[in-house]
Design brief:
The protein is α/β, with parallel strands linked by helices and 270 residues long. The chain is 36% helix and 15% strand. It contains ten helices and seven strands. Helix 8 links the parallel strand 5 and strand 6. The structure holds adenosine-5'-diphosphate and magnesium ion.
Length: 270
């Protein structure tokens, strides 16, 4: 069994060759890893949370945030929960493209109080999976994500959904992901093996800590060249503070400017 394997239901992706979105052709291992991520989140989300709001971020671009957000929201919906995926990357939105749907109406319309019924975001893939694209790109993404309007919108949506997953921009590049911190239950941090720089990751976790973000866990997105269609996805339930202390220590050790790829950090935690 795999994500979107029912051809009739994922007709929007038919013939899509240039956009090889992960959720279109996930192999068995990757699908199982997303289910593991879903299971682990149930342990890290504080008990009794009504409609958890899960942000997905990383240190840099291209680490697999949007891919993770799409597939995580899908596996949550697949379980029967009513799930909303929001494209909160108001600078370089990509969910609409990955899903092959129009980019608006979307989040910015909801934030501007334009009359868009929630049903407008229902996906064609699962009845209980809703996808809200970014809407038109605004001039002030950080302010919008951290705004009172955003808080109110999430409050309203939490009445309707069981889970909300928000695809966010990278922490080290813009402050948007941190601006929304107060309104979310926690963050999933995506790390791409052989890509994410250790120092970038340290900076990312420092920023998350400073903003008091509850890190629900890290996703290791391992894309191995030539190693199957889409590599592997691993989820590890790291304790945020443990992770932070480790990173803090290695930051000092790295004062000589030695640039590493972050792999050592992962090895040490195994
Ligand atoms: N594990 C993976 N293996 C191969 N390609 C991947 C993997 N994860 C993401 N990608 C591809 O890498 C690119 C960036 O992924 P994306 O999820 O858009 O990253 P981000 O949102 O962090 O910028 C996309 O083209 C995506 O399809
Ligand atoms: Mg993205």
């Amino acid at each position: 069994m795999g994500l979107f394997k029912n051809k009739n239901r994922h007709a929007p992706f038919a013939g899509d060759t240039h956009q090889r979105t992960l959720h279109k052709n996930l192999d068995f291992t990757a699908t199982e890893q997303y289910k593991l991520l879903r299971a682990n989140l149930h342990f890290t989300i504080p008990e009794g949370t009504k409609c958890p709001v899960i942000g997905v971020t990383s240190s840099m671009r291209g680490e697999g945030k949007s891919t993770t957000a799409v597939n995580l929201s899908y596996v949550l919906a697949e379980q029967g929960s009513k799930v909303l995926l929001i494209d909160g990357d108001l600078r370089i939105p990509s969910v609409a493209k990955k899903m092959d749907i129009p980019g608006s109406p979307g989040l910015t319309d909801v934030l501007m109080d334009r009359d868009v019924p929630t049903e407008a975001f229902k996906s064609e893939i699962l009845d209980n999976w809703y996808v809200m694209p970014s809407g038109d790109i605004p001039p002030n993404p950080s302010e919008l994500l951290g705004s009172h309007r955003m808080a109110l919108a999430l409050e309203r949506l939490r009445e309707v959904f069981d889970y909300i997953v928000i695809d966010l921009p990278p922490v080290n590049i813009v402050s948007d992901a941190l601006a929304i911190a107060a309104y979310i239950t926690g963050m999933v941090v995506v790390i791409r093996e052989d890509y994410t720089e250790k120092k970038e990751l340290e900076h990312c976790f420092r920023q998350l800590k400073l903003s008091d973000v509850n890190v629900l866990g890290c996703v290791m997105n391992e894309a191995k060249a030539g190693g199957g269609a889409y590599g592997k996805y691993k989820y590890r339930n790291y304790r945020y503070y443990k992770y932070y202390r480790y990173e803090y220590k290695t930051h000092d050790e790295d004062a000589d400017g030695d640039k590493k790829d972050g792999k050592g950090a992962e090895d040490k935690k195994k």
